[in-house]
């Protein structure tokens, strides 16, 4: 059965309320029934004990005193709920009875407990009866039976039952429509959220859902959706910026390559000139290839982060191998390298991506450090973690640019350093790799003095 959310709320509330109403109605009925029977039994016991004091016992005979006055009183008064009294001997033979019994008689059942109330019948009418023993000293002489009509109480209970049965569906129907109305009012904010989100498209991502006045669950939901829209908008803007920057970066080497080839074809050149143009073309092709590889690597981080496998990696060999790959450039710039890493330190990481992180940070330190400066690489354990620090004495980064250095294609003051090659993707790759491996990266830099990168690994592994 397909029901709207509003009707489902009303139905669930109705089912719960129906259970409660059923229990309440049954409780009302049984409370009234108990009260009616309790009052009737109390009156019946009173009458039985009262009339037991009006009995005379003579030998084996038992009879009422002043029975004539009793009969006269019954003729003078209208009895709304008459009391029937009967006397029987120990053998159950009727000895005397009240005038209102006339030709009828109450049933005597010696098997029933004495001073116990029970339902029985008299002349096709339901009555409530009690029977008490009559004793003279310690000798049982007979029994007194007292009864009252049950027609009145039964009528009251039947009327109450009919009333409750009629009220039950009426109450449930009223509750259903009231609950349905209240549910409709309650989900209006949800409908507003739905309407607003349906309006939001790629061209209107700046629109936000109005927050409810009451800070309840709907307020939290609306805030979460607005925050999600904010993140989506920011991600889309970064994606659009990335696409534009990537297009520009790819177009530049292609334009240079095309221009070089067009100039080469304009006239016949010497072998040396052809070689020079070919070298320029190869350089641009290499630049284009590196750029394509880096773009593919960034895309891979977005799709394969959960599939990265980690293992024990020794930091010292990894750093040492990276330095060896760039030893010729380090020697050419007469830079000094200071390494302070315990050979026994291991981290839990993916070797390829960790090598990528360290290589990009080290190559930046080498590129942006002037001749003869020092590059320091240290690793130590701190608060059950391993921290790796790579610092240089290079040109530094402006404070306002520190938060942007991990954005793709961003280069701080690139026009002032045209001699330093790069496309601004290295640190964005570093940030993606660190996020994938759970490594916290932090940067400190002073313009004109140098930069320091800190890598905090999630756990310490000691090499055995």
Query: Hey, roughly how much beta strand do the residues contain?
Result: 15-25%
Major sheet details: 5 strands, antiparallel
Mean pLDDT: 81
Radius of gyration: 51 Å
CATH class of the largest domain: Alpha Beta
Query: Helicity, in percent?
Result: 40-55%
What is the ordering of alpha helices and beta strands? HEEHEEEEEHHHHEHHEEHEEHEEE
What would you call the shape? rod-shaped
Query: In which order are the strands of the major sheet placed?
Result: 4-3-7-6-5
**Which spans of ≥5 residues are poorly predicted at pLDDT below 50?**
none
Query: So, the CATH homologous superfamily of the largest domain?
Result: Histidine kinase-like ATPase, C-terminal domain
Q: What is the second-level CATH architecture of the largest domain?
A: 2-Layer Sandwich
Helical stretch tally: 10
Could you tell me the CATH topology label of the largest domain: Heat Shock Protein 90
Number of domain modules: 3
Short descriptors:
464 residues; alpha+beta; Beta-Lactamase; Helix Hairpins; Heat Shock Protein 90; 3 domains; five-stranded antiparallel β-sheet; five-stranded mixed β-sheet; 10 helices; 15 strands; 51% helix; rod-shaped
Question: Topology, please?
Answer:
Elements: H1 5-52, E1 55-58, E2 61-64, H2 67-76, E3 83-89, E4 94-97, E5 118-122, E6 125-136, E7 139-149, H3 151-186, H4 188-199, H5 217-265, H6 271-304, E8 311-314, H7 315-325, H8 327-332, E9 336-340, E10 345-349, H9 351-368, E11 374-382, E12 385-391, H10 426-437, E13 440-446, E14 450-457, E15 461-462
Parallel strand pairs: 9-11
Antiparallel strand pairs: 1-2, 3-4, 3-7, 5-6, 6-7, 8-10, 10-15, 11-12, 12-14, 13-14
Helix pairs in contact: 1-3, 5-6, 6-10, 7-9, 9-10
């Amino acid at each position: 059965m397909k029901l709207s959310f509003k009707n489902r709320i009303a139905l669930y509330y109705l089912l719960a309320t129906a259970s409660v109403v059923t229990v309440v109605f049954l409780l009302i009925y049984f409370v009234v029934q108990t009260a009616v029977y309790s009052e009737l039994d109390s009156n019946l016991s009173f009458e039985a004990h009262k009339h037991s004091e009006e009995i005379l016992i003579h030998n084996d005979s038992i009879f009422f005193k002043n029975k004539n006055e009793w009969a006269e009183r019954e003729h003078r008064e209208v009895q709304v709920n008459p009391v029937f009294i009967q006397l029987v001997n120990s053998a159950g033979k009727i000895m005397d009875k009240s005038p209102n019994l006339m030709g009828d008689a109450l049933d005597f059942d010696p098997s029933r407990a004495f001073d116990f109330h029970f339902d029985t019948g008299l002349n096709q009418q339901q009555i409530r009866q009690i029977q008490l023993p009559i004793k003279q000293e310690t000798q049982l002489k007979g029994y007194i039976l007292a009864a009252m009509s049950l027609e009145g109480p039964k009528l009251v209970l039947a009327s109450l039952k009919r009333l409750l049965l009629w009220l039950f569906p009426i109450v449930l129907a009223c509750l259903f429509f009231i609950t349905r109305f209240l549910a409709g009012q309650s989900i209006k904010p949800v409908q507003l959220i739905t309407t607003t989100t349906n309006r939001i498209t790629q061209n209107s991502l700046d629109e936000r859902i109005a927050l409810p006045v009451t800070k309840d669950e709907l307020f939290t939901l609306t805030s979460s959706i607005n925050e999600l829209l904010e993140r989506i908008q920011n991600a889309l803007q970064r994606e659009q910026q990335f696409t534009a920057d990537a297009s520009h970066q790819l177009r530049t080497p292609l334009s240079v390559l095309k221009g070089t080839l067009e100039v080469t074809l304009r006239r016949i050149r010497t072998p040396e000139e052809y070689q020079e143009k070919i070298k320029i073309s190869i350089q641009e092709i290499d630049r284009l290839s590196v750029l394509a590889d880096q773009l593919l690597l960034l895309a891979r981080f977005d799709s394969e982060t959960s599939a990265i496998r980690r293992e024990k990696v020794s930091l010292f060999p990894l750093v040492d191998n990276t330095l060896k790959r760039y030893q010729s450039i380090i020697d050419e710039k007469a830079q000094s390298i200071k390494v302070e890493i315990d050979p026994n330190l291991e981290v839990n990481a993916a070797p390829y991506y960790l090598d990528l992180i360290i290589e990009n940070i080290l190559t930046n330190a080498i590129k942006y450090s002037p001749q003869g400066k020092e590059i320091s690489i240290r690793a130590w354990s701190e608060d059950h973690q391993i921290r790796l620090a790579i610092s240089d004495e290079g040109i530094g980064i402006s404070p306002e640019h520190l938060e942007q250095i991990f954005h793709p294609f961003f280069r701080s003051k690139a026009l002032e350093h045209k001699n330093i090659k790069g496309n601004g993707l290295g640190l964005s790759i570093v940030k993606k790799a660190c996020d994938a491996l759970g490594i916290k990266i932090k940067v400190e830099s002073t313009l004109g003095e140098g930069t320091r990168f800190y890598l905090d690994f999630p756990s310490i592994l000691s090499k055995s």
